[in-house]
Amino acid sequence: MRILTFKFIRDVLSRYYERAEIEDVPKIGMREFAFFIPDLKEGDIVERHISFTDVEELRKYLIDKTPRDAYYSAAYYLEPTLEMDRKNLVEADLIFDIDADHLEVEKEEIFVCTRCGVKESSGDRCDDCGGELRKITWITPTMLKKASEETYKLVEILSNDFGIPYNELEIYFSGHRGYHVRVTTEWVRKMTQPERKEIVDYLICRGIDVERHGIKFRGDIFQDPGGGWGRRIFNGLKRIIEIGEYRNFDFLSDNDKKRIEINKERILMEIGEKGFSLLRKCLDRGKFMKIIEKSIEVSRVHLDPVVTQDMHRLFRLPGSVHGKIGLIKVRVKDVDELRSFDPFEWALLPFREEGKFRVYYSPRFNAGGDTYGPYQNEVVSLPICVGTILVFKGLAEVERK
Ligand SMILES: [Zn+2]
Question: Which of 276-280, 309-313, 341-345 has the lowest mean pLDDT?
Fold first, then answer.
């Protein structure tokens, strides 16, 4: 990284934190803070076991040290500044992490030569000039949509099955490729690690016994599965038949598929009202259970189990900048806003004035209502909030005016 770019990053972060909306940190004095501080020689330096008495003291630190990433503990400690085993954990917020990188969705990976800007599909060295290739994962609207769908599933279950009201579910755009959900309600904070693991198991359907949810291969009397997983698996199954997803399942023979196809309308009518005796007649037990597994797979929540189970986990500071892309971790008001949330519109840094950047490579993308790129090894004038994205992604350097 050029020294000019390094100074630019520090300047942008410092100016941002002077005016940033940093929301209240509940019981701030009991939290451990941790930061990645940019350093020209060392890369990033970790500073942790730090504590603040109020948000303004935290703000002063952010303006002065300009961390690339800022976090605080989900846990509340008696001694947040001491070593891990001496901190004395009291309780912890319940947090969830949904990251598009862990979801089954097509990712746009690009390998960019930082010398000549050529884009390759793989490898370590540039074919043209022998320069080093840097692997970049670009965020696509499809990835973000997938992440928001998972988040929607998560809040729906937390609300309907666990009785946590929607207004107690705090949803955040993570600042990069996904969403965080947090609950700070008192009874939730008191939950132990094994209890958190049980919640995770429930959400990801680990070890689920479908028969206990009213889904049986034998038996003529249909039981309405009611709410919960029975209903979700039931609905998932209906969707699989409705949109013809079963045609892609290689465990079904052509004859199985044909039988489902011929009876499709009747199967759907039955699933809607009476169960699935007709679908069972089309398949043997093994295949029927495999279709149920597919339904579980689309219905369960694809979250990072470790984040929720580990009470000592760090939570990215709301309102802070994400060091991998230069977007802000912002609060998403509610599930309706989640549906239409566009980070390249809502999570941009508040700097619209233009600056000059040498861009190695950038795909075409939308930000702040305008379209940018594609660029290849060229100097372009860009709004600071857009140029920052490319700089933080390692795709551009700052150019002298
Ligand atoms: Zn090259």
Answer: 276-280
What fold does the segment set 1-92 form as a domain?
DNA primase, PRIM domain (3.90.920)
CATH code of the domain occupying 98-205+331-343: 3.90.920.10
Query: What is residue 333's three-state secondary structure?
Result: coil
Q: Is the pLDDT of residue 340 over 80?
A: yes
Quote the pLDDT of residue 181: 98
- For position 292, what pLDDT does the model report? 92
State in Å: Cα 181 to ligand 1 middle: 41
Instruction: Tell me the CA–centroid distance for residue 127 and ligand 1, in Å.
Output: 7
Answer whether 98-205+331-343 and 348-401 agree in fold. no
The C-alpha atoms of residue 34 and residue 73 are separated, in whole angstroms, by: 8
> Ligand 1 centre and the CA of 108: distance in Å?
20
Give distance in angstroms: CA of 378 to centre of ligand 1: 13
Please list, in sequence order, all residues whose beta carbon lies within 8 angstroms of the beta carbon of residue 186, skipping any fewer than 6 positions away: none
User: 140 CA distance to ligand 1 centroid (A)?
Assistant: 25
Beta-carbon contacts of 358 under 8 Å, excluding residues fewer than 6 positions away, are 377, 378, 379, 396, 397, 398, 399
> Residues 207-229: what's their mean pLDDT?
74
Nearest-angstrom CA–CA distance, 339 and 173: 12
Tens of pLDDT, residues 145-168 = 999 999 999 999 999 999 999 999
Q: How far apart are CA 308 and CA 183, in angstroms?
A: 11
> What does the DSSP 8-state code read for residue 81?
T
Span from the CA of 5 to the centroid of ligand 1 (angstroms): 21
User: Ligand 1 mean position to 360 CA, how many Å?
Assistant: 10
- Domain assignments of the chain as residue spans, ordered by start: 1-92, 98-205+331-343, 210-299, 348-401
Tell me the pLDDT tens digit for each residue of 41-91: 888 899 999 999 999 999 999 999 999 999 999 999 999 999 999 999 999
Fold of 348-401: Ribosomal Protein L9; domain 1 (3.40.5)
